Amino acid sequence: MTTYNLAVVGGGMGGLGAANRAAAMGAKVALIESGRLGGT
Amino acid sequence: MGCIPTKTLVGSAKAIHTAKRGAEFGFGVSGLEINWPRIRERKDKIVNSIVSGTERSLQRNPRIDLIRGWARFTGPGRLGVGDRIIEAERVIIATGVAPNIPDIPGLKEAGFFTNESVMDMESLPASMVIFGGGPEGMEFGQIFHRLGVQMTILQRRDRVLPREDEEISRELEVILREEGIAILTRAVPTRVEKLAGGRVAVTATVAGKQERIEADRILVAAGRRPHHLAELGLERAGIEGDPDKGIRVDETLRTTAPNVWAIGDVLGRLQHTHFAVYTSGIAVWNALRGEARKYDTSRIPGGVFTDPEVASVGLTAEEAQAQGRRVKIGKHPMRAVGRAQAMGETRGFTKFVVDADTNAVLGMHVLAHLGADLLPQGILMMHTGSIDPLQACVCIHPTLSEGVKSAAVNLKPLDAVATATGDLPDEEQH
Fold it and tell me: Residue B2: which of A4, A6, A38 has the nearest Cβ?
């Protein structure tokens, strides 16, 4: 099982921002979202 | 996605409104038809294009695994999503907010829209009552009014947009009322009844008196609160927080669990997309690089996309004085700005709140066409530490920004400021 460097709970605008920035800094990221990306 | 859907509706509503102002601009329109399905299609097309672009870019990123489902903490650093266990060295919680539904007898039975469902309704109702006179209520009130729906806004507090500069609240309320939107303040809905034909009757106490308002539909715009926190199982990871106040963090966005940070709306502080994005950057630096960067809410701006727009950052004059500061105000009405007259967009004003001793910009408050785009000049000055650069710069003529500069160069001690109805000396027109 992968141990991620970072798990981001929620794929709204904040979560997306966190996931993308973390990945750009070299992290392996799990982004968890149940609905549409980007929030409402 | 990040408020884009409502802004597409604002665009459609503005275009329709301008078409109806033909006489001012020298044209006539007959047979103006509003096509709600087409307005929805335009919104969907724009939103889908942004969302699918985001999805594609995530799929192409080998470092990000997108996991679909609802997460819950199963222990410190461990999350469950369905049957799957996710282990992570660090976690950032960004679960956001959802519409707050007030506990009003009959409301659930009668049915209501929220900001999420109202934009996808099948057809426009003849009339709608909005519970809430904050940013969402005001935006939707004007949008749907412009699309031909008879709108009533019920606002609990004594003014709409209670967090904004008071002059802005008062002036915008007048503008929207004059446009034909009914706005009732100190209005608290107490009961909802379903009527025949799917209509509803709202009983409300309005400034102490009981009123009854009938309409086709209700839109609940009574704020948004952190959601999904109960299901998230915060206590299993030692994270303090609750559904009312959000997740507790220190000034570096760290929660009470050492490897967990929280960002954005779920903090229960500011609800703006740009705040969520801003805090995401800080949290990632702190989480991945072990830094202790602090987040700062004092220069986070906010906007309301009515027409004219409201945009503000920092302190109001009253708040600055309450802090014991000597304050100067610079205020300039848009009707004195040549470009605003040429555009036919003369409502509102720009206002600076400046520290009289240091010339530091403490706050900027705008009610104007494209107000949200005029505000960054004030935000920048808050970062430079002084209004002096703005006073020194040369603006293109004719622009709305000249109005901003005029407000910046005409600073007066607080008690000497002209009111919105005061006359300006001729030399201040341009």
Answer: A38
